[in-house]
Amino acid sequence: MPAIIHCRFIAIPLHLDIEQPPQLEAYLRTKGYAAADEPIQIRSLAGGVSNRTVLVEFADGRAWVLKQALPKLRVAVDWFSDPARIEREAQGLRRLAELAPAGTVTPLVFEDREQHLLAMQAVPQPHENWKTLLLAGEVDLNLVEQFGCLLATIHSRAAERPEILAAEFADRSFFESLRLEPYYEFAAQQVPASASFLRGLIADTRGRSDTLVHGDYSPKNVLVHADRLVLLDHEVIHWGEPAFDLGFSLTHLLSKAHHLSAHREAFAAAAKRYWHVYRESLGHVQWGGSLELRAVHHTLACLLARVAGRSPLEYLEHLERMRQAHAVVSLMAQPPQRVDTLIDALIERMNVFA
Question: Which residues pair with 105 in a beta bridge?
Answer without folding.
Answer: 231
